[in-house]
Batch of 2 targets.
Target 1
Amino acid sequence: MKSKLSAESNYDVLELSGEIDLHYSPELREMILGSLKDGKSLLINMAEVSYIDSSGIASLVEGFQTAKTAKLSYGLLKISSPALQVLTLTRLDRVFTLYDTAEQFQSHL
Amino acid sequence: MENTSAISIRNLDVDYGSRRILSNINFDIRQGEIMVIMGGSGSGKSTLLRTMLGLKKPSAGHINMLGTDICHASQKELYKLREKMGVAFQGGALFTSMSVTENIQLPLREHTKLDENTIQIMTRIKLDMVNLLPYENLMPSELSGGMKKRAALARAIIMDPKLLFFDEPSAGLDPITSAELDNLIVMLKESMRMTIVVVTHELESVFAIADRIAILGDGELIQIGSPEEIKSSTDERVINLLNRTPRENIVDGDVHLQRLTRDNQ
């Protein structure tokens, strides 16, 4: 997994790429929770994610729950086909808010 | 589907005492495919599964699994390999003193140091996938046979294994639960990139899920191929298996008499 966290004016963008599995999901969890702890909404770009396992999905779910509690916006951007398949299998495609563009996310802030 | 092998079986012989159960078995299971191993009772399919899982030592031959020769691997190598494997046994093999949730979490607690929140969410994801979320706090003794089987599957996939072995997934299940389980097996292959080995003799399931089918008979590999190739097989033993034709028991009078009276002589 590779990741890059960047700051927009009123939200953070986390770009993920490669494979997210048991070895990398703790790192992903730390990044998501760290960003939300600073009180910033979070958009996670998943366009280049080639594989995500259920530990990675669990990190995304925990982040979503944390964001909801803190009343922050939280979305998944340009989700790749392999990642979408896993979300569909786990019925989480109906739980997360999926965006095609960053502008769509911004309009919900 | 990738064409590289997840499992290679070469010149495999397996004996129980002086009795040969599997003889000269050779075939590959490709990464990302569902391979169904089928055969009648006594065909050797369960022994093949036990041997692939490292529970039975072969008398000869090799099994290479994800790059590890399991017949000659060290305990450390086998332990590492088992982190990438999930097994759902026919009867469930759940620990009776643990709740459903505790059973399912066990591999994560044994093999990982994931955060408690991650473990709880992963467990609920898998319980939901097998439709057992409302029953997470029940004990195995409170589950039906089908529920035990689904709990066993949830435990087998909790670590998102590269290799999933499933012994008789449909046996004893009602048709709807059986179809749901078949569907889940196919989804696991497609979404989670698992290579799945299913041992069964439930024909309906076989043709619903298999990419390829290996048919065993009397300890030998009779045929391996796609569902279409198996359906159009001209091998009498395959045809009999698919048509559920009873085996003809040809009796040699002298041999049978000797068998019945050998302790009286």
Target 2
Amino acid sequence: MMRKILFYFFLLFAIAMQAQQQIAFSFGETPQTLMLNPGSETNYKSHFGIPVLSNFHLTIGNTGFQMGDLFSNDSRPFNEKFEKVLEQLSPDDYINLNTKIDVLNFGFRYNNKTYISVGFYEELDLMVYFPKDAIEVLYYGNNSFFNRSFSVSQAIMKADLIGVLHAGISKKIDEKLTIGGRFKIYSSSLNVETNNNSGSIVTTTNTTNISRLTLQNLDAEVRTSGIDNFTPLGRNFGIGFDIGLTYHFSPQLEFTGSILDLGFVKYSKNTRNFTAKGNYVFDGINFEHTSDDTIDYWEQLTNDLDSRIPTEETQDSYTSWRPIKLNAALKYSFGERRNKFCYTKTHKQYYYNSIGFQMHTIMRPLKPQFSFTSFYEKSLSQKIHTKFSHTINDYSSTIFGAGVSMQLGKLNIFGALDNVLGVRDVSTLNNISLNFGLNIIID
Amino acid sequence: MRFKLVPLQIVICIAFLFSCSSNLNFDNTNLEIEPEVTIPLVFFELDQRDFLDENDQEITVVSDITVFRIFDNTVLKDNLVELTLDFEIENGFDRSFLVDFVFLDEDENITYDVEDFSINTGNLDYSSTRSIVIETSPEFLNSIKVRVDVVLSPSTTILNPDIEKTFKFRSSGTFYLKF
């Protein structure tokens, strides 16, 4: 049973992805772009997302290993592959799963310069760092690791299931500058997090007894909400906002930038927090050989353990910050121009080609997660726009992505896949990101 | 000209996206997890006084017993393959001993009796390793208590509580688990 659980756990990790939305950022004038930068330019009159299909985003990434490391088709025993992967893992390695479903999303033009968009989406975000020491001690035991200290601080994870009700405004200041902001109300259904733990466990030889187990400076806490009483619509609320801008240095050179999810959730309902703190040295049971037969050594031991390493369960409130995301892109457009007939009956000039760079950062418990992307955008016609990208990040330096945005009548179809090479050759896959959206856009 | 190229570009893109070449095998995923967990067990120290009663008569057997509820943990109980027991004994006495290490169930019936150790006079460096294989001794899993009997062998040498002599016993167990 445990073997199966470990297997599926690692299978999930192996195909896991990344919370990067490089392709959708600053690409075309779709509602997806507006969600990644509230200050992006909008040149349509209104939009209505097809409920649930308006925007679906899934990203899984794993920095520890590739699919082929575990599942290569060769004669090596699985344990050998597993042990090699385990050896190469670093405590900085992690898996990340992020999925976002737009339940409702619509927007309308308030006036020539102002576009308002509102909606509700559900987001699941899971970030787990590989606790290498704990995996090793579970897999090998402590017998071969006398004098090696196993760290508790490697246990870092955060899981969130959050509903987000949002309203944003995008305002064109002048021909060069558009700014925007989005206010968000978070309602969290589920949160499990642990970080900033400390402590170590070590097995040593000793003169008191043959072996000694020492638990030093343990200080661990796991905060949870919603693990008992899960409700799809969460009862813990928080607020946050996004800000963003678009700036044209020239008609051809454009900068876009955004900061997303500057906010927090305050957990006060359905909370269960667990703490353990203390030091303990265990040499075994010391027979005292007193004439008093009533000594219960086992009870003494468990009482001693409880008093030296008190574990506590509380229902205390806590605050959890949302992972802040930073996006920035610089885009240079060139080639044949085209005009777009806009809601204002004016024409906006577009170019058929663009190249640029973009940067994406998410603040994570251990350290920020960076991605650097270079891209090429090509409009195949006035209705079909494509984007090709190359990304370097924690997962890989060869992530190639492709995106397409098509206007079929009033229906805009948006699709993007990051890590095309990983899909072509699954053995090298350690991250993948999908983005798909269906929206009605009225010019 | 540009529009003629569009379908070709799309075909190339789609081919690029979906031409998977996988050389993976998900059948060979039999992971054997076999941790070896070492924990200290029982230790004690006896002096000559411990083997004399209030009338200074020799006590032949000094023993002590403890409950250990490790097999309440079904993960350990269901997956234990073998337990090796390491013993180290320092006998500073001018007498020899037999040591009996026994595991007992709730009603103190013997579930496993580790073969006795015979410790010669003045042996300060006795060590021994014993193995309990669960397959051949399944009743061991019903153990809930452990008792150590230290048996003083008969001799003409008389114990003298005024002289500092110690008998030290140390033990450690390594649990071989398989999941």
